[in-house]
Amino acid sequence: MGCICGHDSESREKYLAPLKSILKKYEREERYLIPILQEAQGQYGYLPKDVLKEIASYLDLSLSQIYGVVTFYAQFHLKPKGRNVIRVCTGTACHVRGGAEVLKAIENELKIKSGGTTDDLEFTLETVACIGACGLAPVIMVNDDTHGRLTPDKVPAILQNYRAREKAAV
Amino acid sequence: MAILKLTLRFNKRGILVKGSVPIMSKVTLTIDGQKVQVDADKTILEAAQEIGIKIPTLCYHPDLSLHGSCRVCVVENLANNRLLASCVTPVMEGMEISTLSARARRARRRNVELLLANHPNDCLGCDRNGSCELQEITHEMSIRREDVERFAGETRDLPVDETGPSLKRDPNKCILCGRCVRVCEEIQGVSALQFSSRGFDSIVTTAFDLPQSEVNCANCGQCAAVCPVGAITEVSEIDRVWRVIEDPEKYVVVQTAPSIQATIGEEFGFEPGTVVTGKLVAALKKLGFDKVFSTEFSADLTIMEEGNEFIKRIKGHKNLPHITSCCPGWIKFAEHNYPDLLNHLSTAKSPQQMFSAITKTYYAEKAGIDPANIYTVAVMPCTAKKFEKEREEHRDSGYQDTDAVLTTRELARMIKEVGLDFANLEDEHYDEIMGSLTGAATIFGTTGGVTEAALRTVKEVLTGEPLERLELGYMGIKEAEVEIGDRKYNIAVVSGLANAAKLLDEVRAGSSKYDWIEVMACPHGCVGGGGQPLPATKEKKDKRAMGLASIDKSNTIRKSHENLDIIRLYEEFLGEPLSGESHHLLHTTYRKRDKN
């Protein structure tokens, strides 16, 4: 079985070392599954299969049982997330004021659908029910920044700004 | 002074009961106007069943924990006008339950209509057409297409896992009753199947939606045995078997497992446990198989090999406890979960695999047939046997030893397809020279049978004395002390993989007291197998097991080492048990697999 980290056991060990130090903090009891998953996701950015297998062995659960929990909660991700997470509000106010058009513009710009991540891991696109900024509708959040009163034509510039920041940081 | 021994225990609903007599007050309620008094830990459904009132159910299964997800068993409490799911609601004093009120009847009907609204309209193409519980309820409630069409909306379109080799899973047909999830977790301790995602996206699936062949599944098929619809079924090999029967070049040899004779009758209206051996043989001959043999022949062979292997181990104090290996579901479970204990498993192949290896060597030679033209079919109570036959280890005859495996249900379908009047077939006998039966082999089909058959031979070989009957019963974990010569041996017999895990954990910890452990993956053993007629409950499996035991009692020769065909096979072909040729054809190896 190939591992995401490569194929040899040495690099696998290295890859899983941070997880093992997380596991050490918890007793081998089923009730610690969710906090372990949260910490593991914090460490790896998402929950890779090999990480889940290791957690399953540690807690003496089957991989299916853990998969069931991971897919139940929206907070857990089985795929890598982009460096920038875009959340498009689809609540009532945003919907009425053209949120769907904004979403479509972002999808076209990034060539991904809602829930997807760009190949260069720059952006992940998600929709959310409401972010509590109805006065600014239609609104999106990129990471912790709020962008309100949007129109589709404003989208490319906003996204470009984050791409530029990435480059500047590098 | 009499001491009353009380043990605290909780029943499955968490209500405290003491010893065998629940210290429980009685509750009085009315159901459809009838007064009924029941224990306080009963559900409304159980109370109704006690007085013969039928309430439809789907997610409920008498052998599993309660779930309450399908809401098809809804009744109304007229005392407060509330609708209650009767399968999970405990009885309460003064309840006035109506199963007949307009609200209850409409609610049940609506719930079934909603299930159907997201269920493929594919009865004609479904393996469970005619045995589907949803179809039956739909029929009983007179639900018509237009009733369902008014709820037309989004429907699922998910990939079907047909890669097998044992089970096919079609999540589009799943009604999310959770029976398979419960049986896989509670009875088997495997949890290969789980609910995943949420809301409309909920499905029952494996980890990462992997195909069955790539997960920790034991292939036991208990999920298929409890599935009320066609969401989980065996991978059918019927077409493949018809093709070879029709091919004049092929010499098609069929073997039937011991349990089939006490179960297939159910498919044709017989009471569970009715022994229909002669009709089974007659039907197979009419279907066109060239030779009809019994797996009991090779079950005797298994006893010869495994019995002698056990004798060798107890003499050398090696690899004890000795653990049986005839159940392929158990073998795969052990490979995933106890790879460190595989040296305790008997190396003897299962009767199915011994039979086929001998067919393509010894029998081919005796009958003067080129083994390349022999096609071996096994009729089994089991879906894991489909997996077992594909294992690379089972090619010792120079060919794939077993070519096809049909479950009891698949064979019944073939018999129905040609329209045989099974109940009125004239009894026929198995063919010579691999069709002789000994009774010892017959009871292989129930939990405890292998042990009893093996110890009959072991004791006689070692001491010349016959073994008294063990009469272990059919449930969970059983143990016995057997005296052979001047030593007592501790034996355990276990069925259900979650039960097996308890004993294997002891072996791993070094605290096991046993010399011999028999494991069958399915509760009750093969009579409760994943390929047996549907629906199956504990009650039915008990009757099937008693049917098999009655054959053993009525058979004159009841010891494997007295089977004349077996004696001849060793004389003419194999030599001694565990020797060169036996070792090559009748023994196998196991492999370590990942836990997940």
Write up what this structure looks like:
The complex is a heterodimer of chains A (170) and B (596). With 170 residues, chain A is α+β, with helices and mostly antiparallel strands. Chain A folds into 2 domains: 64 residues, Arc Repressor Mutant, subunit A; 86 residues, Glutaredoxin (3-Layer(aba) Sandwich). A 4-stranded mixed β-sheet of chain A has the order 2-1-3-4, with helices on one face. In chain A, strand 3 and strand 4 form a beta hairpin. In chain A, helix 1 crosses helix 2, helix 2 packs antiparallel against helix 3 and helix 3 packs across helix 4. Chain A is elongated and about 50 Å long. The two termini of chain A are 35 Å apart. In chain A, 24% of the residues are buried. The mean pLDDT of chain A is 90. A 5-stranded mixed β-sheet of chain B has the order 4-3-7-5-6, sandwiched between helices. The N terminus of chain B is likely disordered. Chain B folds into 2 domains: 106 residues, Ubiquitin-like (UB roll) (Roll), CATH 3.10.20.740; 348 residues, Rossmann fold (3-Layer(aba) Sandwich). In chain B, helix 9 crosses helix 11 and helix 9 crosses helix 14. Chain B is built from 18 helices and 19 strands.
What's the helix and strand layout?
The complex is a heterodimer of chains A (170) and B (596).
Chain A: H1 9-24, H2 33-44, H3 49-59, H4 63-72, E1 84-89, H5 92-96, H6 99-110, E2 123-128, E3 140-142, E4 145-147, H7 155-169
Parallel strand pairs in A: 1-2
Antiparallel strand pairs in A: 1-3, 3-4
Helix pairs in contact in A: 1-2, 2-3, 3-4
Chain B: E1 8-10, E2 16-18, E3 26-31, E4 34-39, H1 44-50, E5 74-77, E6 82-85, E7 96-98, H2 102-117, H3 133-140, H4 145-149, E8 167-169, H5 179-187, E9 194-196, E10 203-205, H6 222-226, E11 232-234, H7 238-246, E12 251-256, H8 277-287, E13 291-294, H9 295-316, E14 322-323, H10 328-337, H11 351-367, E15 374-380, H12 384-390, E16 404-407, H13 408-417, H14 449-463, E17 477-484, E18 487-495, H15 497-509, E19 516-520, H16 538-554, H17 564-574, H18 580-586
Parallel strand pairs in B: 3-7, 12-13, 12-15, 14-19, 15-16, 18-19
Antiparallel strand pairs in B: 1-2, 3-4, 5-6, 5-7, 8-11, 9-10, 17-18
